């Protein structure tokens, strides 16, 4: 654990989810694969050349850029757009886009958080209010993080995606705390650390990803393993 700045007293620990409390890479790959398996069962979709899904996603992202703050709606709209180009009936468009998204969502939340991480969170919860702030669309109630957090804030439904300050501001309002009383923990300098810093919150960077970031600011604390948070108990 490396301290870049002294930490002021905090009341709330805010956690990013994907790649912070569990390895999200295989999970998202499995979710995309489940969705693609369903899409390939639709003859009209399977007959499209190239990566038709990626084309649809990019088209919707470019023509409706506001959806990029809400990955769930973005995916649903892209699926409907793709179906609408295949000559399907309205009923078929609705049924296939719903089923394709559900295949993705079911696999997306097929997660098991390690017992050691759950134990850590349980200990921290005795001293702090625990919340989650995520840009992703994982459904916490569907796996073993259910009931761990006082609140879960999702980009899109609850505000613009990190690094925008909106989700942090929403948490401050709901919990009646000042920004500096929230300590946010996440794996991304660009979204988690930058977002927390912009909102006036304190931040911990979990530096365990082989990723290049554009944000040059510092987190208050840097760790390499989530279990180093035990020092906050």
From TrEMBL:
Q: What GO MF terms are annotated?
A: hydrolase activity
Q: Which domain of life is it from?
A: Bacteria
An annotated GO BP: riboflavin biosynthetic process
* Name of this protein: Haloacid dehalogenase
Note whether Hydrolase occurs among the keywords: yes
| UniProt keyword terms in alphabetical order | Hydrolase, Magnesium
* Matching InterPro entries: HAD-like_hydrolase, HAD-like_sf, HAD-SF_hydro_IA, HAD_sf
Q: Per the record's keyword annotation, is Coiled coil included, yes or no? A: no
Q: What cofactor does this one take?
A: Mg(2+)
């Amino acid at each position: 654990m490396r301290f870049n700045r002294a930490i002021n007293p905090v009341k709330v620990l805010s956690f990013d989810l994907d790649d912070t409390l569990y390895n999200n890479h295989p999970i998202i790959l499995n979710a995309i694969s489940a969705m693609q398996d369903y899409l390939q069962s639709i003859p009209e979709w399977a007959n499209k050349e190239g990566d038709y899904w990626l084309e649809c996603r990019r088209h919707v992202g470019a023509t409706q850029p506001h959806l990029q703050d809400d990955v769930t709606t973005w995916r649903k709209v892209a699926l409907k757009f793709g179906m609408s180009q295949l000559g399907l009936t309205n009923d078929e468009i609705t049924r296939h886009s719903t089923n394709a998204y559900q295949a993705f969502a079911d696999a997306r939340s097929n997660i098991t958080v390690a017992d050691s991480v759950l134990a850590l969170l349980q200990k921290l919860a005795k001293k702090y209010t625990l919340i989650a702030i995520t840009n992703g669309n994982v459904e916490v109630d569907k796996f073993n993080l259910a009931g761990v957090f006082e609140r879960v804030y999702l980009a899109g439904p609850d505000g613009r995606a990190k690094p925008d300050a909106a989700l942090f501001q929403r948490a401050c309002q709901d919990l009646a705390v000042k920004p500096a009383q929230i300590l946010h923990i996440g794996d991304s300098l660009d979204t988690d650390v930058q977002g927390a810093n912009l909102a006036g919150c304190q931040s911990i960077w979990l530096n365990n990803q082989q990723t290049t970031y554009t944000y040059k600011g510092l987190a208050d604390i840097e760790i390499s393993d989530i279990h180093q948070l035990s020092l906050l108990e």
